[in-house]
Design brief:
Number of strands: 5
Distance between the termini: 66 Å
Strand order of the largest sheet: 1-2-3-4-5
Shape: elongated
Strand content: 5-15%
Pfam families: Pantoate_transf (PF02548)
CATH class of the largest domain: Alpha Beta
Catalytic activity: (6R)-5,10-methylene-5,6,7,8-tetrahydrofolate + 3-methyl-2-oxobutanoate + H2O = 2-dehydropantoate + (6S)-5,6,7,8-tetrahydrofolate
Family: Belongs to the PanB family.
Largest sheet: 5 strands, parallel
Structural class: alpha/beta
Radius of gyration: 28 Å
Protein name: 3-methyl-2-oxobutanoate hydroxymethyltransferase
GO molecular function: 3-methyl-2-oxobutanoate hydroxymethyltransferase activity; magnesium ion binding
Helix content: 40-55%
Order of helices and strands: HEHEHEHEEHHH
Length: about 200
Amino acid sequence: MGSYEVSPEQALQTAIRFIKEGRVQSVKLEGGKEMAPTIRKITQAGIPVLGHVGLTPQRQNALGGFRVQGKTSAGALKVLEDALAIQEAGCFAMVLEAVPAEVASIVTEKLSIPTIGIGAGSGCSGQVLVQVDMSGNFPPGRFLPKFVKKYGDVWGEALRAIETYRDEVKSRQYPALEHTYPISGEELKAFEEAAAGVKAKGTS
């Protein structure tokens, strides 16, 4: 956010820096028709661009919040026009986010480049899901978008492990003998005898 919106020239400078210093192979940016000149500027410099249309999280305030895009005929047509514009500008693929499945399928059919769906149904060329969401690595009660499927419960498992650790420390079950380093009986006896003659700190 803010690294490419000012001008196509700013975006190209940022992209060049990412490629040179970040050692990445492509860049991703959000936006449709209005971003086509920026995408063209970057791709003409030989830097691959992944586009992103539909719900664009960095611009969600202008969309009235995190809302599904393309729910009306006019809205769906805008998503298609945006997708075609950024394909024409040189994107090698694009993310379609929070778009009705039927709309995403039609958009995907109209394009010659792959679409990666997130909340856009199974008709896209591929899918993406945030790892924190899919793995369940978040506390109970957190808002989740409708499209998220929780494939695991990392948070619950981590909490279970931490609580078990706490309980075992309090009961002195942990650390057990197998978690400690050994000393020979002979050396321990010598140490105990030596320690017996050492005054405890603060005693006279």
